[in-house]
Amino acid sequence: MEIIGKVKKILDLRVYKNNFKKRELLIKTEEQYPQILIIEFILDKTKLLNSLKPDDKIKIFINLKGKQWTTKTGETRFFNSIQGWKIENMIENMIENMTEGSSLKTKTKTKTKTKTKTKTKTDMTEKKKKKKKQKDDEKQKDDDDDDNEDNEDNEDNEDNEDNEDNEDNEDNEDNEFDELPF
User: Fold this and answer.
1) Residue numbers of the domain that contains 31
2) What predicted TM-score, i.e. pTM, was given to this entire model?
3) Which end of the chain has the lower number of beta carbons within 10 A, N or C?
């Protein structure tokens, strides 16, 4: 269990028989109906109160203890105690959380940067691939154009040869007509 509140008063250390140590703290809870509670710390846990001062906002982790007690007259009585075993300073926790939040932001930024770098590398690789493909396409187109030019040249040559043949044929035809007796 835990109790959250403000320190009202820290009582002095008391030492009993057999070196049993006990120190108590008064805390005012922060709830709809605030309560002032006394929390006891025993043995080595008494040291937890050394760094506290009045008005500190704290969270105390507690155990509830119940005991039976018999008076000198033989009457049986019961009593409860609230025993603290851990204290967290709420302000320090808030500061830690804020610090953790900023380190979380830093981690997030680092992850984002890493993702961005990875994405950028991927984008660069994609751009390089596109550029290479464009170059290859252009080269292929140039090669095709060269082939077409060669084909055109060949066609021109063939046309020229055909023309020359035709001219030769025409010359021959003229000659043929000359030889005819008509």
Assistant:
1) 2-89
2) 0.50
3) C
pLDDT score for 82: 95
Distances 40 to 8, 44, 97 between C-alpha atoms, Å: 14, 12, 28
Residues of the chain with pLDDT under 50: 169-170, 172-173, 182
pLDDT at 135: 79
The predicted-structure confidence for 56-107, as pLDDT tens digits, reads as follows 999 999 999 999 989 999 999 999 999 999 999 887 766 766 766 655 555 5
Identify whether 146 is part of a domain: no
- Count of other CB atoms within 10 angstroms of residue 84: 24
Per-residue tokens: 60: 């105390």
Residue 26 CA neighbour count, 13 Å, CB half:
9
Is residue 85 included in any domain, yes or no?
yes
Distance CA 165, CA 176 (A): 16
In this predicted structure, what is the pLDDT of residue 182?
47
Q: Report which secondary-structure segment, H or E, holds 22.
A: strand 21-29
What SS3 state is found at 31? coil
Residue 171 lies in a domain: no
Number of structural domains the chain divides into: 1
CATH of the domain at 45: 2.40.50.140
In a domain, 51, yes or no: yes
Helices (H), 70-89: none
Tokens of 42: 């025993």
For CA atoms 112, 113, 119, 122, give the dihedral sign. Answer: negative
